């Protein structure tokens, strides 16, 4: 059995340096180091491990500006066999819905795949929506928050999904889509062969025309989400010292808590 | 691409190739992200670093010196030294585990038949199986002629009996090159080399040694009791065991030297950082000339050793016939330097350096063995002297 695995990755600003432009309500990207979204690194690592276990191929795919090619080169250094960049002015300003639409068209074009793996959410957008939307648009079975892939047999995959108190074991038919959590693995560092390969690898760029999208469904035009305002919430903190004996303090505390609840 | 951070630690230009720079950067990343955070713990618990071996394997570091046709990168000794130095900078115990696996693989590379190479090298390259080299016995250290382990031909097998001691990677490695006597009457010329798989019946492990330093590495006894090894596992032919050992060590000693250079680099960096923040008499001790001169000597001798190791590795990669002498020179010079630099690093730290809270006491403990293993520095001076005396007539 060989698995053809597609891993969706996004280039995001490095963890410690997110700034928002108060005028435009968008992320300030100038002078900010770009990294592969950390959750996508777990997705990529899991894809590479599945290939090592079952054979096959891992294709990393990313929608973004031309410089997102760098993230795809890094994906190759980390074990991806191939990479495809989805880049076109028509994609700019896509929200999660439009992003999932473009990704779904591109993945449909790849056609011969068994599994699509995404990180649970991105560091910048933080919505966790693209994975499930993508599955919906591809009309494929979907499991979110996968913390372990147990086995793949006869076109069916058994996975563990993290839930609040423990985990569930789910069997899903393939092809399918999953999003993974960080508990699933410890991503490896780049390899020598991967790094050498990443420097010269041809990374095809698929445009709106290549993916055959309906232009009205991508970019700003295809995005139902409107960001009205982004702001840091005011942190208001009031403190009050309770006085009296221990019993009195406890009574006062209970009273206060009851007011709130 | 990652900035080429590793290059900043050397002051001389070593003219590395693009691939060698990639190796250096990746080895440094593994060292800093995976080894540094756990080195004190590995030392304290004397724990074999399996998780790190997996990281080294994933990074392709075991592939470096294996030819491409056996899934390696087909790089030479210099590239191996570049990786070994970076690992040594973080932890000598981990680095020697890595280097010892190269030592165990070298006899297969140098003397293996096509069939033996196909059977063993791809697994060594992928890091799936570690290797070890078994020469030393209680009666045979510097004096290789003291080997007592025997290998007696019996039909399709050789039957091995004897005990090896102080074997690096013993018990953890899966592929062993063992030196045993096929003709005890001929002394060193009666020695032969065998590849022995870990699970061969009659092959067991004795005492695991408790060591002064390099405590992340495993050192143990190998016990052979009527251990039947298929005759296909003989390396080269009967009687070449001694020359195979010499040739193997000639080509791996620069690796030990490189680990020592890395170890000293780590100690120098720690000493410089400490000297700049430790305040005495109202100023950092780095303002005191006595300390400055210590640091200057450490840096100078370190760079001299690194230059010698690089030049030696390049010369061996170019196919010199003189590998014994220059390999011994690099090993002696670099390991004596590492002992001195790590000792001075402890001195710069003062009382704090003697405490286990800081890494330099471990570095000093780790340094000592480098002057002893893979040929004591005394025996290697004999090797150097032999060639120096032979060459006298060529000087004019």
Structure description:
The complex is a heterodimer of chains A (261) and B (396). Chain A has helices spanning 38-54, 69-77, 96-110, 130-138, 192-200, 208-211, 246-260; strands at residues 3-8, 11-13, 20-21, 26-27, 34-36, 56-63, 82-86, 115-119, 142-153, 156-163, 166-173, 176-180, 205-206. Chain A has 261 residues and is of the alpha/beta class. In chain A, strands 11-10-9-12-8-1-6-7-13 form a nine-stranded mixed sheet, sandwiched between helices. Chain A has a two-stranded antiparallel sheet with strand order 2-5. In chain A, strands 3-4 form a two-stranded antiparallel sheet. In chain A, strand 10 and strand 11 form a beta hairpin. In chain A, helix 2 packs antiparallel against helix 5 and helix 3 (96-110) packs across helix 4 (130-138). In chain B, strand 9 (279-280) and strand 10 (283-284) form a beta hairpin. In chain B, helix 1 packs parallel to helix 4 and helix 4 crosses helix 7. Chain B has helices spanning 18-35, 39-45, 50-58, 77-90, 92-111, 114-126, 241-277, 289-317, 323-349, 360-370, 377-391; strands at 131-134, 150-154, 157-168, 175-181, 191-197, 203-208, 219-230, 234-235, 279-280, 283-284. Chain B is globular, with a radius of gyration of 21 Å. In chain B, strands 1-4-5-8 form a four-stranded mixed sheet. Chain B has a four-stranded antiparallel sheet with strand order 2-3-7-6, with helices on one face. With 396 residues, chain B is an alpha+beta fold. Chain A binds chain B through residues 70, 73, 188-196, 199, and chain B through 1, 18-19, 22-23, 26, 29-30, 33-34, 55, 58-61, 63-64, 73.
